[in-house]
Each structure stands twice: as structure tokens, then as C-alpha cells.
Automatic annotation (TrEMBL):
It comes from the Bacteria. Residues 227-240 have a biased composition (Polar residues). Residues 270-282 have a biased composition (Acidic residues). Residues 241-264 have a biased composition (Low complexity). This is Guanylate cyclase domain-containing protein. Residues 186-329 are annotated as: Disordered. Residues 283-306, 319-329 have a biased composition (Basic and acidic residues).
Length: 329
């Protein structure tokens, strides 16, 4: 054999679906199934073993079939046998084995280590294309064939035994070599509907960085209050311990100090102290033991991540402390 001479051959690239999900125990079994399926198909299609060059690719097989074998036999009877053998294998499997097959005819060079050439590259790219992957999953199929545009024009379009051009659907593929047209076929089914390419979140205004909310003052910090003019400087929330550490005051812009006072000229904190003293007096009059209460002095609105920026004192006031306060001690 002249290793420098290229010969026109049918290149077949076979890849297993989701091969990365097989562990070290299951992967050898998966590989054995692929070889059983392919070799039985060659036997039933009466393709001589010496007419087939076969290379192992770990999770698949690369083949080149000599030009003395009619391409129509591979596209027709051989593909039917592959599909039937694969279905037989999958009947006993919980997770069925799926195969993606790329086909192209072109010049192939053989050497001591295998085969090479653009025809080989294209067949491999077709089998590994994202469209082939999506179609196999979307249709829950066992097998998808991806034929090159030239193979479709030269062979498939002319028909033949087990070859129906109407069952192929075209799609444009972006490959490393550029944009090409490929034809997709699911054995035993009508022409497939090519699944649309999923929208990527990157660069998508509806998802990237959540642009629907990024920079929106109504969602910065707490979506319910941050940046809301109806709550900024509101005396009903400023200085309230129940809101000082809540999500409405953390993560967003710091609130302006609350300088509002009650209608009688006293600050809200002073009114709260008077209310506490009145409740304590009611407890003493009714003969109940007064409960310990807490009072807060200082501006509670100036803090960031619960670190207060102004002097704040939180003290415990008991009945005895109130009595001393009333006596002026």
C-alpha cells in the first residue's frame, strides 16, 4: 500500500451519547456494545472485514470503508442493521445507549498510525455537532445519522434500497472549518424537526447579570424598600430596632439620619420611654411584677451590616431603675 496516496473512501465517525457520564466500570461495557453493534451490521450487510479500517476512539469508533464497497449499501442496509442491533442492545439497559454517526466521502490518507485528511475531520465534526446532540436528546432516539451535503447530493438524493431522501432534514452548522450544510436522519422516522439552538444566558438582556433588575433602584438591597422614596427618611421606620438589622437597611445605600420629631416637639425615642414608664406604672398598680424592658438611645438608622455609625446605647431598664429615675437619682 502506498501510504502517500490518498484514496476516496467513505468515512464513518461513531460517537456514544453522553459518554462522560459512564464510570470506569460501565465504560468498557459501553465500548463492547458499540463494537458488537457495528461488527454485526457489517456481517449482515455483507461488507468484507478487510474492506473496513477501524480505529478505536475511546468513546467511539472511526471507520473508513474501501471504495469497492458501494456507498448505498452503507447508507441503506448497513445503517438499518446498526439501528436494529442497537435497539436489541438497549432492551436490557436501564439507560439506553445512543449513537451519533457522521458520514462523508472524500480523500483519505492511511499510515501506520491510522487515517487522516479533511474528509476524516468533517465526518468527526458532523457526529460531534451540537445539533446532532440536541436532536438525539430531543427525539429520545437511539441513533442519528449526519450526512455531509456532498454525500446527500451525490448519493442520498438519488435514493436506493432503504434510502429515502424525504426522511432527511437539512441544517446549517458552524464548524471550525466554517459554516456547512448537513443532513440529519433518524432511522425509521420521518424527517426530523431540527431543534432550535438554546438561547445562551451570556449576553442575553433578560438573563445576563439579571439585567431586568440590575441598576433598578426599586431592587437594590431590599426589593420592597431600597431606593423607595416612600420609605427614605420615614419616621415610622427610622430608629426602629425591628428594621435596623432587616434586609431593608443592609446591602443598600445608607439611610439619611432621621431628624423628625413628634407633634409635641419630642423625639420618637422620648415618646417610647414615656410609654414604657406608663406600662410599668400600670403593672405596679395592678400588683403585677414589672417585666424588664429595653430602651435604645441614639440614631439607629446610621449603620452598615449591623455596625452602627453613630453612638448607640441599648440598656436594660428594671422597675428599680425606673423608680430611681422618677426620684431624680
Amino acid at each position: 500500500m502506498d501510504l502517500t496516496e490518498a484514496r476516496y473512501e467513505l468515512v464513518i465517525s461513531v460517537d456514544a451519547r453522553r459518554s462522560g457520564e459512564y464510570d470506569d466500570v460501565d465504560k468498557p461495557r459501553m465500548r463492547a456494545r458499540i463494537y458488537r453493534v457495528l461488527e454485526a451490521a457489517f456481517t449482515h450487510a455483507k461488507v468484507a472485514r478487510d474492506a473496513v479500517h477501524m480505529e478505536d476512539r475511546g468513546d467511539g469508533v472511526l471507520l473508513a470503508v474501501a471504495s469497492r464497497i458501494a456507498v448505498t449499501r452503507l447508507l441503506g442496509l448497513w445503517l438499518v442493521e446498526v439501528h436494529e442491533n442497537l435497539r436489541d442492545e438497549n432492551r436490557a439497559l436501564r439507560v439506553p445507549l445512543g449513537l451519533r454517526i457522521g458520514m462523508h466521502v472524500g480523500p483519505v490518507r492511511h499510515d501506520a498510525r491510522g487515517i487522516s485528511g479533511r474528509a476524516v475531520d468533517l465526518a468527526c465534526r458532523l457526529a460531534d455537532s451540537p445539533v446532532a446532540r440536541r436532536l438525539l436528546d430531543a427525539e429520545k432516539a437511539d441513533l442519528v445519522l449526519v450526512a455531509s451535503n456532498s454525500l446527500y447530493d451525490d448519493v442520498v438524493s438519488g435514493g436506493g434500497k432503504f434510502i429515502e431522501a424525504a426522511r432527511y432534514a437539512p441544517a446549517r452548522l458552524e464548524l471550525k472549518e466554517g459554516e456547512v450544510t448537513a443532513w440529519f436522519h433518524l432511522p425509521g422516522r420521518p424527517a426530523p424537526e431540527i431543534p432550535a439552538e438554546p438561547r445562551s444566558s451570556a449576553g442575553d438582556p433578560s438573563t445576563a447579570g439579571d439585567r431586568s433588575t440590575a441598576g433598578d433602584p426599586s431592587t437594590a438591597g431590599d426589593p420592597s424598600t431600597a431606593g423607595d422614596p416612600s420609605t427614605a427618611g420615614n419616621p415610622s421606620t427610622a430608629g426602629d430596632p425591628s428594621t435596623a438589622s432587616g434586609p431593608s437597611s443592609t446591602g443598600g445605600a445608607r439611610s439619611a439620619p432621621d431628624t423628625s420629631t413628634g407633634t409635641d416637639g419630642r423625639a420618637d425615642g422620648d415618646e417610647a420611654e414615656d410609654d414604657d414608664e406608663d406600662e410599668a406604672e400600670d403593672d405596679r398598680t395592678a400588683g403585677r411584677r414589672p417585666e424588664a424592658r429595653y430602651t435604645v438611645h441614639g440614631d439607629m438608622s446610621q449603620h452598615h451590616d449591623n455596625v452602627y455609625q453613630q453612638p448607640v446605647h441599648i440598656g436594660r431598664i428594671t422597675d428599680g431603675a425606673r423608680s430611681r429615675k422618677e426620684r431624680g437619682e
